[in-house]
Specification:
Blueprint: E1 11-14, H1 19-23, E2 33-34, H2 41-53, H3 59-77, H4 87-95, H5 111-124, H6 131-140, H7 144-155, H8 167-189, E3 210-215, E4 225-229, E5 235-237, E6 252-257, H9 264-269, E7 276-281, E8 286-292, H10 301-306, H11 309-317, E9 321-322
Parallel strand pairs: 3-8, 8-9
Antiparallel strand pairs: 1-6, 2-5, 3-4, 4-5, 6-7, 7-8
Helix pairs in contact: 2-3, 3-5, 3-8, 5-6, 5-8, 7-8
């Protein structure tokens, strides 16, 4: 399904916080890591997607991802125990400033494929006959080695040889697995097992790049910015006004969609005005979207990122490259491969 967002709204540049304004918050304490909540992570996502889908040009796709998130929620709710790193491995990772369960090096527990197929059964039960159901059935019947090879490509952000039709489904299974892995590892070893990594732009749990950042509200972390992992949904603190790609603090500015009439912003982003911005870096010419709970308390990074593709297109036209990654919205023109049977 090809998204067709409204891209008629121009960009609007907004002032960044001054050093003094940031310094006012410097003495406050906040949790470094915010782990995904089993009962809420995918449930909140699917609810937000349904809210955003109303009158949105990408309505059908947002509802597709919402239904997929609903299935993810049901699978995660009673996901079985899986293999986790032992204390020695966790200590070694911490000493090296690396995540303990890296997406690019952790050996996936074979149970992840069983849970993927359970996810496909749950999701497929909601579908009418048609291309989407055919794709679900094809993936359910695919050989394990083909599924693992596709998962490897997704984990490494490789589009060559990637089956784009099944990619969001496999990604959904990987998200459930790594979310369970984050929750299970923290339960066994404590949240402090996820410490600072080098570089600090990568998830302290799995080493993946963020989808977006979120400026939070609440007693502990009001006004602080967290990066939201594209794979395991862990959030980790990252200072504001600092590039999430090259880590520069110079040349940072924000862009957002400026409505051309009273309803344009709702059409372009489906969020409240000011809730979705692109943090742009003039040093490396990359950007990452930032969602603000102060402007819209119901924002959800993955959902609002999907619903604001118009902002991506306009910022890209201005010469910026996206540093974030959304596993539910993959682009590419991969060449066919011959690794076994998914196509």
């Amino acid at each position: 399904m090809t998204p067709s967002p409204d891209t008629t709204a121009p960009l609007r540049t907004t002032r960044v916080l001054s050093a003094e304004e940031i310094a006012m918050q410097a003495g406050r304490q906040m949790p470094f890591v915010r782990l995904p909540v089993r009962a809420a992570v995918f449930s909140d996502r699917q609810l937000r997607l349904r809210q955003l889908a109303a009158s949105h040009p990408m309505r059908d796709y947002l509802l597709f991802v919402a239904d997929l998130a609903a299935a993810q929620h049901l699978v995660l709710k009673d996901c079985p125990d899986i293999a986790i790193p032992d204390p020695t491995a966790c200590m070694a990772a911490a000493k090296a400033l690396k995540p303990p369960t890296p997406a690019f090096g952790w050996s996936r527990d074979p149970v992840w494929r069983a849970e993927l197929r359970r996810l496909l059964d749950t999701f497929g039960a909601t579908l009418a006959a048609g291309p989407v159901k055919d794709t679900v059935d094809r993936l359910r019947a695919a050989p394990d080695d083909w599924i693992d090879s596709q998962a490897d490509r997704l984990s490494r952000r490789i589009t060559l040889g990637l089956d784009l039709a099944t990619a969001p489904l496999i990604a959904a299974g990987l998200q459930v697995y790594w979310t369970q892995l984050a929750i299970h590892t923290a339960a066994a070893h404590g949240e402090r097992v996820f410490g600072h990594t080098e570089p600090g732009t990568l998830c302290p749990c799995c080493g993946s790049v963020p989808t977006a950042s979120i400026t939070r509200i609440g007693a502990e972390d009001a006004g602080f910015r967290y990066l939201h992992c594209s794979l395991c949904s862990t959030q980790w603190h990252y200072v504001r006004i600092k590039c999430t790609h090259c880590e520069s603090t110079k040349g940072i500015h924000f862009e957002e969609l400026a409505p051309v009439d009273a309803n344009a912003e709702a059409r372009a982003t489906a969020a409240r005005p000011g809730a979705i911005k692109a943090e742009c870096c003039d040093v490396c010419s990359h950007y990452l979207k930032q969602v603000s709970m102060e402007k819209d308390s119901e924002v959800e990074p993955v959902a609002d990122d999907l619903a604001s593709v118009a902002l991506d297109l306009l910022v890209s036209d201005a010469g910026m490259d996206r540093s974030g990654h959304n596993l539910m919205l993959l682009f590419g023109d991969p060449e066919p491969d011959n690794d076994g049977g998914g196509g």
